[in-house]
Amino acid sequence: MLKVDLHCHSNVSDGVLAPAAVAAYARKGGVDAWALTDHDEVGGIKAARARALELGMRFVAGVEISITWANETVHLVGLQVDEDNAILNRGLAATRAGRDARGREIAAQLERAGIPNAYEGAVKYVGNPDLLSRTHFARYLCEIGACNTTSEVFRKFLTEGRPGYVPHRWATLADAMGWIRAAGGIPVIAHPGRYRFDETAEGALFDEFRQLGGNAIEVVTGSHTPDQYAIYAEKARRYGFLASRGTDFHAPGEARVEFDKLPPLPADLKPVWHDWF
Ligand code: AMP
Ligand code: MN
Ligand code: MN
Ligand code: MN
């Protein structure tokens, strides 16, 4: 059986390895078919594809788009996109445009909370000047000893109600689905268990996604707990959605689950890649 991983980050967004190095790391972890899905950016796809093919993997061009739905940030993965598509690239460029200003506001808040120079500190970790992420702030706060882990940073800073939280309005679900479709891709709701929706709101998200033509969600992902693998497998069955799988890898040692430890999809679910390879 092919080992498929369709959610990973490089230093083109908030991962730490270059795209080719992520390909090699995934291959070492036993991956046979692999997607790079950087946040709001497809600039790493060509290097990732070249290395993946050299290493004997099937390659899927992907992206993870930040959207706002019901005042929450939601992530939508696009798979099998044409990375050169102009509509997709225009949408992603617009999505990236607000990140630097948001970063400066995050830093101003952290300064008031007693942590100076966080903008400069975060930028040191950035591989792509267009893609300053909260993850880069988290790595800097660990570096200076303000926290021990990036997840502790997110608990104490950078999230709603905490210093360094700057609300941000991203694209709509319909817009992002339009960009993915224009680029020939398949939209997938990323790590649905991560959002703070109750059952009603989550159902409304799934219904709207379906009305817009969506039919796939992530089930087994490094951003879910093992309990959530089962919960979202059940929801995929109930909604008739195809299922996706991926580590959501960002950095060696920072992952909740390494490439060789992520379980397969439950056998009765239809994988989003069922007719790809
Ligand atoms: P941004 O797109 O700049 O708002 O940053 C979001 C990124 O922060 C996500 O893609 C994750 O990589 C990371 N992140 C969000 N929440 C957490 C958390 N609780 N622990 C660790 N990383 C997180
Ligand atoms: Mn990330
Ligand atoms: Mn995500
Ligand atoms: Mn991700």
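^ manganese (II) ion complex. The CA atoms of residues 110 and 116 lie 7 Å apart. The chain has two domains: 4-96+172-246, 99-158.
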